Amino acid sequence: MCGRYAASRRPEELIEEFEIETVPAHLLEPNWNTAPTQSIYVVAEVEQRRTLFIASWGLIPSWSKDSKGGAKTINARVESIAEKPSFRAAFKSRRCIIPADGYYEWYAKAAPKQPFYICRLDGKALAMAGLYEHWRNPVSGDLITSATVITTASKGGIAQIHDRMPVLLPRERYEAWLAPTPSPKESLLALLDVPGVALDLVALPVTRRVNSVRNNGSELIEVIPIEDETLPF
Question: Is position 229 annotated as part of the catalytic site?
Fold first, then answer.
């Protein structure tokens, strides 16, 4: 799964990487410990414009009676997104990219669990494939936009840490994935099949301070020395 990630890039950096045309009036502060239900940046095609907007992390289906389930839908498994009721409508027409510096995963066989920061070897942003949805609060009338990260089976050395990882899209697939026009299910799923992408990733051991969402800062992604022989890297 993907339950925490770092997102510290300035909007101008995201504009260049994702060819964004529209940005929100309110901008988010850098967040090195993004957690479920927090506000995140999302990239999508809105009214034929590549748009950066803010959503809550944890998808709330439009038919939900309340927003409580959002914390449980931060991830959507690629194997079931086309059929699962919570995601299938968004999969058809509300696809997005969730930009990240890198994400955290915990190696469970270490005692205590050892967190790793997983990022691109070249330092560029991760383009996590996602879905977004709009939900209107039946009591207040407020419209909430929420999003989920699509996950797949881990590839390469990353699989030694955890069996799931975000689907990371290469730049040449951005346009097809974000296109709002209807596409065959098979074509969309094919875009999410990114063989060998894990070869461009590096897993770095980091401080256990990342375990608490109260800790936030660039020190969380600094590499620490480890001597535990049970660790995979």
Answer: no
The catalytic position among 2, 45, 96, 133 is 2
The catalytic position among 45, 96, 105, 133 is: 105
The pLDDT score that the predictor gives to residue 65 is 86
What pTM did the predictor assign? 0.94
119 is annotated as an active-site residue: no
Instruction: For residue 173, tell me if it sits in a domain.
Output: yes
Provide the number of structural domains found in the chain: 1
With respect to residue 230, please indicate whether it lies within any of the assigned structural domains: no
**Full domain range(s) for residue 198:** 5-221
Query: What pLDDT does residue 144 have?
Result: 94
Task: Read off φ and ψ for residue 121, nearest 5 degrees.
Answer: -65, -30
Q: What is the CATH classification number for the domain harbouring 110?
A: 3.90.1680.10
